Amino acid sequence: MTQRWLNRFGRVRENRSNQSQLFLRYLLSYVAVLLIPLIILGVLIYYSFFNILANELSKNNKNVLMQLQYTFDNKLIEMNKIAYQIYNDPKLTSYNMGVEKPLSVQDGITELKKYMVGNNLPYEVFVYYNDLDRLYSSSSAYSAADFLQYFHYANWNRDSFFQDMKSIRNNTTRQADDVSMYGVDTKMITYIVPNPNSSYLGNQITVFFMIDEKAVNKMLAYGDGDIILVNEASQIITSSKNAGYLRSDSLHSLIEQRTTGGSSSIMLEEHEFNTWTVESPNTSWRYLILLPANEAMKQLTYTKTLFAIALFCILMAAAGVIAYTMRLNYRPLRQLKAFAENKLGKLLHNVNEIEALRFTIDHIATAKEEWVRNSSLAVKEYILAKLLKGHYAEIRECNLEGKEIGLAFTKPKFRVALFLFKDYDFNGRPDRSQLISFIESQLPPEMEAYGTVSAEDGKLILLIAAEESSEAQLNGYFSSVHEVLNTKWGLQTTIGIGNEWEEVGWIGKSYIEASTAVDYRLIKGRNQIIFFRDIPPRVGFNYNYPVQQLKALEHSVFEGNSDETRRILDRLFTLIDQIDMPLFEVRCLCFDIINTVIKSMCMINKTQIHDNTNEYPDVISLAGFETVDELWTAVRTFSLDICLSIQNKGERQKQDMIDRMKDYIQNNFGDNQFLIQNMADHFQMSSSNLNYYFKQKHEFTISEYVNHLRMEKAKQLLLTTDFSLSEIVRQIGYSDVSSFVRKFKHTIGTTPGTFRKIHIG
């Protein structure tokens, strides 16, 4: 007892070990499937997406600088235009601005005010006249001494001022300087625009602008960053923050390098800054952004952190899902093993669930192979019977069905041979398949042959396919087989062989020929090899094959004309009766009639008319009829049945077409653009055919029917509404009132107004 429990416990532990190993393999595979794409995704994001994001941030900073450059360039261009206009203004010449002409001076000041209108960047514009030693602005006039007293520059003394006014040849921007204006301290940027037409003796007139640093700093403001404005001489004009690091040697060294376009980093006051620089091609000013490194990549760092958190959350959620789904998925595997053991009828020890399933599938496959081997003969007979009865339109359909049992025809020409054995019953004989296999195996390698047994008469049917068989080969093959059947098997055998045909549909005809050859044994004798081609024609029998009648039959069936089909069949039967046609010829003619009817049926896609293919006589049943009357009755009944089915369905289709035409007219007669041609286009017919088709079912034309509907609608509207005639005309599809009144009076016998008065009172 104790030993049994120990053994059982040991088996349970072993099974659990197998199950745990399987569970662990699945778990590791799921985790690997999860981690591999996540790792690849992470690497791609870090080395691609974040680089793209960093480039976008850099591009954004450069765009800010480009926008500033564009703004300041426009402002400077405007100031340059003001200066050039001042130089060319006749009211502002040295002569007119002399002290001896006070009215001209006042006009000049007024003229300067005009130039300041519309440009909000300059604080003031000044014009220095060298020969007058005076300065004029848009608000006042000064002597040079008074100007330097009222506008006292901290870093621009008297000598430097006069030197710059007389000798500067290019546009010059002075750094922001402390200026005491009438005792008030402020910072001003000075922009000097010399006269481009000055003589070599020096500037006679010089224009310069004072720009309030506060206005410029407001334009330069950029969050936590500092935008520095550098003039054409690589001097810092001003910056948005005016921090202490502006005096740093490192910064001035960076400015002197004149690097533009890209980004770089710099250490200022023990802090790292990222820099971006843009230079104006028009003014040579440079615009430099200093952004603390932690602020420059703040958005990128935030995105990376967010991505890491999201990745971690996805990993944790996926791990939880894996753990949960593994428990769910493992239970069906265990149940599947129990199901497999139940089907096998025994317990499977020391194997996991997948191995148990593989063992069960292998067991089922082995059982199936055994079943296929046992049933291959039945499947083969079924496929060959369908081939003989014409159920395959192409040989590849037969090959597709026979693929499982290795049945395939690859040669293009076919013939049928029938074996009739004396005193041999195939049913229940254990050597039946051996006999068929023997006959098949004796065929030359360049030919293909498959044998089956006819359930109707017990004959062995052999279907032969070849490229082109010679008479010598066939005679040799059938002679050899016939001899072995007689000597080894002890079977007296009559072999009938039909002609060779290329089309699959004519295999049935070869069968009829082979059956006729077997029947010829009554004349030639039993236990013989009889080729159909060797049967001599009946003496005195000669007739023209009814090709035209078969074509007419095809057309009448196609059109569903049962009366014409009946007349054609009666004429063919009369032909058979008049010339005393042999039974073989009757079978062949009936075979052609059936093929003609089926061909017509397929042409009009009526394959569902006869769902049960056993309802019409096939080639095997044709060979079984022993009298002409029985054979003809079966073929005639089938042909008329098919024709009536097509005719009935055609009538339903015609009625459906008429109903759709009437619906179309009723839905569109109220449109004054209604045309019969449009209706014909809708139904994809010509207008003449449309009219003929419609009138064939009615006693009136489409136009008469449309007019009838319009008049009935008009009568209804006259009696049930108070619509005016113009509104009624619009609703029923007429184009004008007068034509409607004439038509109404001609059709109803009175005018619309009179009709309404008579019936409404």
TrEMBL record:
The chain crosses the membrane at residues 23-49, 306-326. The keyword Membrane applies. PROSITE patterns: HTH_ARAC_FAMILY_2. Pfam families: HTH_18. Keywords: DNA-binding, Membrane, Transcription, Transcription regulation, Transmembrane, Transmembrane helix. It comes from the Bacteria. InterPro entries: Homeodomain-like_sf (IPR009057), HTH_AraC (IPR018060). One of its GO terms (molecular function) is DNA-binding transcription factor activity. PANTHER family: ARAC-FAMILY TRANSCRIPTIONAL REGULATOR (PTHR43280), HTH-TYPE TRANSCRIPTIONAL ACTIVATOR RHAS (PTHR43280:SF28). This is AraC family transcriptional regulator. The lineage of its organism: Bacteria, Bacillati, Bacillota, Bacilli, Bacillales.
